[in-house]
Amino acid sequence: MPATTIHFVRHGQVYNPEHVLYERLPGFHLSERGVRMAQATAQFVAENPATQSLAAIYSSPLDRTKETADIVCQAVNQARRVRQEKPLSVQFDQRLIEAGNNFRGKRIGRGDGALWRDGNWRLLTNLMKPSWGESYRSIASRMTDFTYEQVARYPGQQILVVSHESPIWTLRHLLETGRPEHNMFLRHAALASITSITFDSSTQKVLGITYADPAGGVQ
């Protein structure tokens, strides 16, 4: 029974001293700590027998995920050269992008541009929908489209996907509970963590889900 494993990696910490809700805005890059987090996860992926034999690497097209994916890809290719294997390149897919958020560009805190000004708080009526942006069902739809497409494309192989907290957790919650809606404050997908989902390549049934946090101790 061939099995396909997709390793979903969340990007590293973002440099955001103004505490802006950056959503899909350009220009938000990894912080110095975020780079170190991505490097720790990259080393884990390159050295761990359970993750080192990748057939492809995909990423959301946003700056922070592209940078994380590039760091992982460099480490993976360094290990592949030692094994005399063909190097991989990062492929981008719009379906992996961050969830849409009506608060984009607002700041968490006080002063001009703060989230709580101009009546924005009125959108905070339903944590499970969510009422302030793209629905969890929409996120789940695009993530499952991408996921099952790759399961069919890479039977019996492993791929790595760099995305964002909300898409990764929404997909996992759907696969584990049958519904995408969840409480955002109860997510379990730390920065630069790896959520690995293994599927039966023939039936697309989930065989197992594991989680690793290689960058959890990075300062």
**How many helix segments?**
4
Question: What is the CATH T-level topology?
Answer: Rossmann fold
N- to C-terminal distance: 42 Å
Query: Major beta sheet, specifics?
Result: 6 strands, mixed
Query: What fraction strand?
Result: 15-25%
By secondary-structure content and strand pairing, the structural class works out as alpha/beta
Helix percent reads: 25-40%
* Spatial sequence of strands, sheet with the most strands: 3-2-4-1-5-6
Number of separate domains: 1
From the coordinates shown, what is the CATH architecture?
3-Layer(aba) Sandwich
| Uncertain residue segments | none
Whole-number average pLDDT?
Answer: 92
The CATH homologous superfamily corresponds to Phosphoglycerate mutase-like
What's the alpha carbon Rg, rounded to whole Å?
Answer: 18 Å
Give the class-level CATH name.
Answer: Alpha Beta
